[in-house]
Every structure is written in structure tokens, then in C-alpha cells.
Amino acid sequence: MDLRRFRTELYDHLTNNILPFWHARTLDHKHGGYLHRFDREGNVTGTDKLVWCQARQAFLFASLHRQLKLDSKWLDFAEHGRKFLLEKCVNHEGRFYYLVDQAGNPIQKKISILTEVFIFMALAEIQLATGKVRDTEIMLNIYNRALETDQSGQCPESIHFTIPQGHRWQVPSMLLTGIGTLAQQVFDPKKITPEVNAAADRMLYEFSNDQSQCFFEFIQLDGKLPTHPDCRILNPGHAIEASWFCLDWAYRNNDTTRAERAAQVIEWSYKLALDHQYGGLIAYCTPDGTRPPGPEIMNISGEHWDTKIWWVQAESMCGLLLAGLLTSRTHLTQEAINLWKYCQEHFIDQSHGEWFEYLHRHNTIMSAQKSSWVRCAFHIPRCLVKMILALDEHATKTSNEMATTP
Q1: Which of 245, 263, 289, 373 fits as disulfide partner to 178, beta carbons 3.0 to 4.6 Å?
Q2: Domains present along the chain, CATH in parentheses
Q3: What does the pLDDT look like over 279-291, one tens digit per residue?
Q4: What pTM, to 2 d.p., does this model score?
């Protein structure tokens, strides 16, 4: 498949499959915000609203208009989410809830830096799309908390689990790097750049280990490899997502060294997770690529070590393509195309649109839901937008190079 056809297929899938599914049913016209829990056919299965899903979708909808130049209705969708977030999801101290009911009444008042970073993304993307400077103080407070969390090595607001004593989690660094380019555009880039570089380096040179050739989700506080058994379980999808954040950050800042390192880590993680027998990427493994020790079910979502998960495939496809187009590892472009073909065959629901959530290792459907409590219009469309833009930029660069060649 050539890159022009690849781009056409991605754009068609985004605009004629993914976005129509959400456009038809996500807006809550009565209570504000978004409904985001649907079964295979798109029927509502729950009305509670995870605040990070509200923020993720507001970001995504704004990016469709600003970055991909789609209809301004998507900016209206984003503003709809912003209004709900700022009117219903924030407490008297300016911190954001974790979970609210359909009307916006808090169900879980727990505070999570993860939630708030997604709110930063939404507010920053909407500001850049509209030109309206309205939320600077909120964004600055969130950015500073994210920076402090990353620099401290602690993440007490992780919510979903307790980080084993003596270890640090890579996600605070991942979050800070993920918002880096947005922060450069809404704040002083001279301040932001060294802070995000430090976060990226933590992932690329501390959590990423050359001897093991893998990216650890946890390391010890002193930077040594993890000792706790649970901390030696790898999450390759997270590793690839975090690494493409680093790659994109580095590329946007003309940093070839960090970009090449990020591509290397992406390839490590991809090789560990790739299922050569059935295709796609598995969810969890050990540093030697085998099944982790412990129970069959890995977490509260019911995932097994060899479950095929929607977001892992999407983020990995995006990471592979960026590495292939933006660094010397050009062979990874074909791996991205191969993974796209796998998703077309197994994940995309040809009858009702969108993707299945989970597949068993041998690619039978494990969960046909389109969105459970943590899923929304985010990973798949965000990655599709990123890939389309990367292919467009690559095509323009190639055309310009050809035009200047004697």
C-alpha cells in the first residue's frame, strides 16, 4: 500500500466511520457535556460521566477543527464540553472531580492529576482554535501541578492503584511531555522547553533500559530497575504512546537525538508486544516477551496479559508511523500499515461502526461495547488525526525536495 492510499483510507475511516458514530449520540443536550458509554449498536449503557472523558472529547473535537480543518460544528461540540467542565466538574478549590452523574453532581470527588492534564489539553486546544484567551489561570495551575508531580517522583493522585513503595511511575513524565507542545503555544516556550525536555529524558533514558531493550512502567526512586514483581510487568502500548509523545515533542523542537532515541524505544516495545501468530499487539508481557506471573486477570477492567485492546493498537499504529516518517527507522512505516490492515480485519465493526473494545488473543470478540467507563472519542480519532497530518507533512516535504532537486 502506498502512502497516498494509506492516507485516504485513514481519512475515510475517521470521517465516515468514527466521527459519525460519536456525532450522532455523544452530545447531552439536556444536561450538558457528553454521553460516552455505548453498546455495540450505539445504545446508551450508562449516564455517569468520567470527567477525563469529558475533557478528552472536548480536546478531540477542537482539534478536528483547528488541526484537520473540519467543519466548525466540531468547535461547537468542544465548547459544549468546556462549558460542562467549568460549570459542573470543578470544586470550590479549583480542582476537578473524577466522576459526576449525568447532571454534573459529583459521585467521586477524588482529585486526579490525570484528569486535570486532560482538562489542560481541552482548554488549550480550544483557546488555540478560537483565539479566545479565557482559561489561562486554570491551565497554569494544572501545568504547575503536573510539573511538580513529575519532578517529585510521586503520584499520590493516581486513583486506579497504589504505586509500590520505593518506585516511581512513568505516567507523570508522559503527561507533561504529552502537553508540551500545547504548553509552548499558550505559555512562554523558554520556560516550558527545558522542563518538558527533562520529563522526556526521564522516559527515554531512565524508564527505557538499553540492556533489557524495554520501557519499564515503573523504576525505583533512585533510577535503578524495578524490584517489585508487579513493577516488572511491561505495558507495551503505554510505552509506545509515551515514546511517540517524546518523538513528536523532539521533532517539533528540531531535536534529532531525542527523536531517534524515541523511535528506538518504540521499536523495542513493538517487537516485544507483536503477536506473530495471530497479529496485533498483546496488552502485557515481561522483559523477555513472555506471560507475566500472577493471576489470569490483570486488572479491574478484566484484561488478560494477551488481550488485544483497542487503544493499544491505535497508539502503536500512530507511534510506528511517526517513527517511520520522522526518523531514520523508515521500515517502521510498513509496520504501521501492517497494523492498520490487522485493525481493519479484526477491530473495526463493519456492521455498526467504530471499533470493538477488546479481542481475545486469537481475535474473537471479547467485548463488543463501543465505550465502557474509561473509553470515549479519544485514542482512535486522535491517532487518526495525528497520522493524517504526519502523512500530509511528509508528502509536502517530499514534494518540495523533488522540486528543488536538479
Answers
A1: 245
A2: 169-375 (1.50.10.10)
A3: 999 999 999 888 8
A4: 0.96
